[in-house]
Amino acid sequence: MSVAQVAHPSVPGTPAAQTAFVPKETTIVVQLQETVSSYDASAGQALRLIVINDVVSNGLLIAKAGDDVEGKVVGAVRGKPDFGARGGDLKFQITTVHNYCGDPIAVHFTRSEYRNPNASAFLSKLDVTVDKGQRYGVRVAYPQKVCGTPTQEVTPAPPSGVIFSNE
């Protein structure tokens, strides 16, 4: 890997930012910062997420815990509890991590959640709800160059309970 000095903002007292190569399929664990439900969500609605762990690639810190992440609802259908019951459906994508230097990291993640009306004991609970705090393992979409700072850290393994894309 070749590392070059670049003009990226850096935090005083830390090593200067350098160009970091981020391989395709690098995992970044993110966390939902709000509850989302098929009952009141709509296509195009922005989702608020953050990175939960520092992410290191080839000895360079490329994303910090707390960095912002872009996601959006791409489809939401309310559950219908009466005759001809229909389960709620919620589909969303996570597309971009904005690292601490301001560089975008393109990621891919799509999740579809569906509530089967035949499996619900209470027809009044047919909507899909994804709770604040849910964690997802997103993958870098293609090899990218972003800013990074030298570190001795390593990226921790994804914690248990992390959900990966189902598409």
What does this structure look like?
It is a single chain. The chain is mainly β. The protein has one domain: Type IV secretion system, VirB10/TraB/TrbI (Lipocalin, Beta Barrel). The protein has strands at residues 18-22, 27-32, 36-37, 46-51, 55-57, 60-63, 68-77, 89-98, 104-114, 129-130, 135-140, 144-150, 163-164.
* Order of helical and strand elements: EEEEEEEEEEEEE
Low-confidence blocks of residues? 1-8
The number of domains is 1
Report the mean per-residue pLDDT as an integer. 86
Q: What is the percent of helical residues? A: under 10%
Report the major sheet: 6 strands, antiparallel, barrel
Main traits of this protein?
167 residues, mainly beta, 6-stranded antiparallel β-barrel, 0% helix, elongated, disordered N terminus
Topology:
Blueprint: E1 18-22, E2 27-32, E3 36-37, E4 46-51, E5 55-57, E6 60-63, E7 68-77, E8 89-98, E9 104-114, E10 129-130, E11 135-140, E12 144-150, E13 163-164
Parallel strand pairs: 11-13
Antiparallel strand pairs: 1-12, 2-4, 2-11, 3-10, 4-7, 5-6, 6-12, 7-8, 8-9, 9-11
Short summary of the structure?
By secondary structure, the protein is an all-beta fold. The protein is 0% helix and 44% strand.
